Target: Riboflavin biosynthesis protein
Amino acid sequence: MEIIPLSFPHELTKENLPSTVAAIGFFDGIHKGHQKVINQALNIAQNSHKETAVITFDPHPSVVLKGKEDVQYLTPLEEKTALIESLGVDRLYIIRFDRKLSQLAPEDFLTHFITGLNVDHLVAGFDYTFGFKGAGNMSNIQELLSAPLEITVIDKLNYNDQKISSSRIREALHEGNVEEAETLLGRPLQLTGEVIHGDKRGRTIGFPTANLMLDKPYFLPKIGVYAVETVIDDNTYFGMANLGYKPTFSEQRMDPKIEVHIFDFDENLYGQNIKIIWKKFIREEVKFAGIDQLIHQLKQDEQNIRQYFHEK
Model:
């Protein structure tokens, strides 16, 4: 897949680009609804012998429109790119969302980023909007066009009578419901981080942990203890993760930390990147009265999580 960063204005010319079927959207999460849009573009392209493209944006519009500096993503850009590539797309256009782009009239957006990229068939979700203040949408797009363009609008995809959306997945994660998030995404929620040195307290109580440093702005699930799978060098291990503040040992509430106790594993992981796959919320994070109470609970957590994986 060719990855092409763009901004407004860009210098690509229609004449130097192949006739293209494109799916457009922000696509955070690449959930089942997003996959439906992209796969429809792929099917149309295959039947008409054209190339496929996905047109997406970075950063999230709220960074520019609302001044947010701490936007967290279900799929940070690098992971979104990998997922799009896995679907078999020929080209990925990543348009920089800045103030200039946000003020572009919808007609000019279409001329510059659709017609100008030699897109002759556009696929988008029913609720996709574009142009200044979202004035362009899939209902009025034909009125805004200055050149012929075929349009395919994808209706909402429901699960349990509710639309599958990035915001719904975030709500599920806010409640710790990583299983529902997995259903809506069509794959488990996961993240990748580097194993760094921690306070090494876990090793002294029989529960050594890998402490993760995240270099991407992930949207994390609810604070608590989870059953997880850990992928190390393409090998998968069961384990339990604590996402939280370690209140038993500290009164300070800084950014939440991720510590993973990997079952039946005792190797040095410092400096390595490992993948965490969230499988089930086990319990809330609590402050214990002392070490003995904490150890008792950790043993119970391990027993419960091993049983969970045994029954899967």
Remarks:
- The first helix runs from residue 32 to 48.
- The CA atoms of residues 172 and 180 lie 7 Å apart.
